[in-house]
Design goal:
By secondary structure, the protein is α/β, with parallel strands linked by helices. It has a 7-stranded mixed sheet, with helices on both faces. The two termini are 24 Å apart. The protein has one domain: Vaccinia Virus protein VP39 (Rossmann fold, 3-Layer(aba) Sandwich), CATH 3.40.50. The protein has 5 helices and 9 strands. Helix 2 crosses helix 3. The mean pLDDT is 94. It is globular.
């Protein structure tokens, strides 16, 4: 595992905000990914998406789970421009979110400056019947850099989740344009 070294926390926030603004028009998630998540947890009533850039995840989840409470986090000031989105660093815990979410989805784990803290926060946010769904390109497709600080292998991702009390269920190719997989964990 490699993690890009920032000069300060403010440097991290600046890097993430710059990348967000630069990529604001891009969408990573696709409907097949949401279908994969749905097949593993079809009855979720609360869904949290971390690092959502432009709320594409929330919109796709709302189509699949129309009655669910759905919310996304984004560290950039642009969060306030999008529905179902709050401005928040996904490493930080909101006490009212502990044990609340039936699904936590993110394709931004590679944006973590502290993957152990991040995984701990996300694990604590899951309900007892919750699923943590991390979409990622790992291995040779994932290089540590200022905008994407975390370079991590599949086994390292699984080890961090398991050491935080999660159970690894499966990984599934997303069949999207990127060669990513979705890794699914439960409590």
């Amino acid at each position: 595992m490699k993690i890009y070294k920032y000069d300060s926390y403010e440097d991290y926030v600046e890097a993430q905000t710059e990348a967000n603004v630069r990529k604001l028009h891009l969408v990573w998630v696709n409907s097949q990914t949401i279908d994969i998540v749905h097949s593993h947890n079809p009855f979720a009533s609360t869904i949290l998406c971390h690092g959502t850039r432009n709320a594409a995840e929330q919109k796709l989840f709302k189509e699949r789970y129309p009655g669910a409470e759905i919310l996304g986090t984004e560290i950039s000031y642009t969060a306030t421009k999008f529905p179902m989105t709050v401005q928040l660093d996904f490493h930080e815990q909101k006490p009212e979110w502990i044990g609340k979410w039936d699904i936590i989805y993110s394709n931004s784990f590679d944006h973590s400056y502290d993957p152990v803290k991040c995984m701990s926060t996300w694990t604590d946010q899951l309900s007892d019947k919750g699923s943590l769904c991390i979409e990622a390109m790992l291995g040779d497709n994932n290089r540590s850099k200022r905008s994407d600080p975390l370079e991590i292998s599949e086994s390292e991702l699984i080890d961090i989740a398991v050491s935080n009390g999660m159970t690894y269920k499966t990984s599934v190719d997303t069949k999207g344009t990127a060669k990513s997989k979705i890794y699914i964990f439960t409590k």
